[in-house]
Amino acid sequence: MFAIRLDKEIEQELDLLAKTQGSNRSAVVREAILQYLEDNEDLCLAKEAQSQTRGRKPLKQLRKDLGLDR
């Protein structure tokens, strides 16, 4: 169980969104949190991949390797 305090305006927006989706406030918040966690994980993986490949291959060589320049 998790409790969070929200402004009245945010609660109203959540309720409206939930209603339009045929859902409830908890499901909307749960989905938003899951999406945030997935996005954050993707960002961390992208940063890690970028740090491992940064400066190792010139763009011209990379384009050639990918078949973008012939």
Per-chain topology:
Blueprint: H1 8-21, H2 25-53, H3 59-65
Helix pairs in contact: 1-2
Beta-strand content? under 5%
Query: Tell me about the biggest sheet?
Result: none
Count of helical segments? Answer: 3
Order of helices and strands: HHH
Q: Can you give the helix content as a percent range?
A: over 70%
How many β-strand stretches? 0
Instruction: Estimate the global geometry from the Cα principal axes.
Output: elongated
Distance between the termini: 58 Å
Determine the mean pLDDT: 91
Tally of distinct domains = 1
Helix/strand class: mainly alpha
Which spans of ≥5 residues are poorly predicted at pLDDT below 50? none
Quaternary arrangement of the chains shown?
single chain
Radius of gyration: 21 Å
Description:
There is one protein chain. With 70 residues, the chain is mostly helical. The protein has one domain. It has 3 helices and no strands. Helix 1 (8-21) crosses helix 2 (25-53). The radius of gyration is 21 Å and the shape is elongated.
